[in-house]
Amino acid sequence: MQGYPSDHEILSVELLTVILLFFMTKMESTNQQVTGARIPGLAVIVMAAGLGKRMRSEQAKVLHRVAGRPMILYAVEVALQVAGHRTAVVVGHQANDVRQVIQAGIADKAGAESVVIVEQAEQLGTGHAVLQSRPVFLGARESPPTNYLILNGDTPLLKEWTARNLLRVHQSEGATVTILTTMLEDPSGYGRVIRREPSAHHRGGLASSEVLKIIEDRDATLAELATKEINVGTYVISGEFLFRALEKLEPDNAQGEYYLTDIVRMAVSQRHRVIAVTLQDSQEGLGVNTRQQMAVVEQVLRQQIREHWLDAGVTMLDPASAWIDAGVVIGNDTVLYPNVAIEGTTEIGRDCIIRSFSRLTDCVVGDHVQILDHSVLRESQIEDGAILGPFVHLRPGVVLRRKAKVGNFVEMKKTELGEGSKANHLSYLGDAMIGKGVNIGAGTITCNYDGARKYQTTIEDNVFLGSDTQLIAPVTVAAGSVIAAGTTVTDNVPADSLTIGRAPQVNRPGWAARRRALLAGDQLEETYVRGEKKSRTLLPPQASRSTGQQQPDSTKGKPTARKRVRAKK
Ligand code: UD1
Ligand code: CA
Fold first, then answer.
1. pLDDT band at 11; cut points 50, 70, 90
2. Nearest protein CA to atom 16 of ligand 1, as residue
3. Out of 111-120, 315-324, 356-365, 560-569, which region has the weakest mean confidence (pLDDT)?
4. How far apart are CA 305 and CA 79, in angstroms?
5. Helices 95-106 and 72-83 sit at what angle, rounded to 10 degrees?
6. Distances from the Cα of 459 to the Cα of 226, 369, 474, angstroms
7. pLDDT value for 469
8. Is 314 helix (H, G, I), strand (E, B) or coil?
9. Burial classification of residue 534, based on how many CB atoms lie within 10 Å of its CB (0-12 exposed, 13-18 middle, 19 or more buried)
10. Could you give the angle at which helices 160-172 and 18-31 cross, rounded to 10 degrees?
11. Who has the most CB within 10 Å: 52, 251, 296, 424?
């Protein structure tokens, strides 16, 4: 999600002055552009071991996708952006799957190699989860981190800038524990931030009362439940304090878990400085515990993505229906018609047109490409100036070279279509290498599969395939050849040849006229099956019998013939 600008401002920071707020606003405008610069002495711990019972899912919560990307990757990406080389992700439920998703999701990102996956075998709470990462940081050769940024794995709207700012305030305030909070109209389910004077908070966005503790929803009193300030689940904690405090946690709460949030109370009682930074845009702090919450987060993220690409010069005729995943890139002057889905890691170049009801998943599309309505494209590469659709289906492994054209009802798989080549109508092209300037006639089929194996078809430059050509692979049609319509190509075709393979045509003058006369009902033969009259067939003319040609089918004319027979009787 790097690069989606947000206008979040910090509304209130405990005991901060107007000057500091001004300073922070200044910093924001410069720092939002700065991504990836790692902060010295900082380590990040991401918690991702929970199952997420409230999701009612077989799948670990952090693997559920938000804007097309597994939820955990949002937090891991923020971690990489701010800490670069020192990140631990605590996994537990479906640990192997989560590990794989993380490794695959960040493989090409700077600092990816330094993400350490830590296992929390039993999920005994968020405090216990963080404690599992201690050996990563304290056993290392490097000196221990000065500060830890701790992130929940289920808060995908959190932005890099906010994490950086939290750390900045933590340092400038000399705090031991800094928590991120926000105000929610409906705070239910979240941990509440309890301050010494609850009502003093948030006046004019300035000084507010001291934080005393975070109390979980289940453990809160009625008075505490009324608090609308919630714990977002993002913390900066001093290195000297964190693990010593975690060791002392007790699971004395409704869930019998070791709560990370209890270290706030502990720090306060030990007279450490605890401060809270409050997000003005509460959406950024939304956590995902339920499918309903996930749906809300999905909407917010989709809207942010649309705004980002609109700002970047993409036209959307109906932005609300443009469905763009987080990992997508779109060039300027590209036009998205209503109801398009651009998914996964798809990259679209400049000045393209994507018409309605088309779906592109993990594709690379060049510049000036037109994709007409109802096209479904997966894991394929489309070069500049190509034209596709309507109703094109590209399965994985297709390469369309420059200015290639693929028309309606064409399915392709693992096939390259050369520069300027055309497959305009009703074809299946699979496991084929097709050169430049080739014409693929309507209804052409590569017969690539014999029920056991797949075989390759090669069509060299400037070949002309007539309509309804079948290519029985493996087979090669060499450059410049012409294949007559209706040909089944079973053998290799030499260059510049004409190939025809069809049953010879037979014309029977007068046959059709005779059939019309028969259908008029003069000569009918009745067919009996087990004594019952089943159907009536036309008496075959002598001539047809002797050649073995197919008889005109009586069933076509049945109702008329029947009526006439009845009328006769
Ligand atoms: C947590 C906070 C709550 C805060 C909310 C914000 C605690 C005790 N509570 O509550 O104050 O308002 O987040 O969204 O921290 N996890 C583990 N191991 C565990 C338990 C959880 O790794 O043993 C991970 C989960 O996978 C998840 C994160 O920690 O990514 C938070 O856990 P979750 O159960 O969702 O906590 P909340 O009840 O939402
Ligand atoms: Ca949660």
1. very low
2. 50
3. 560-569
4. 20
5. 50
6. 73, 24, 11
7. 98
8. coil
9. exposed
10. 140
11. 52
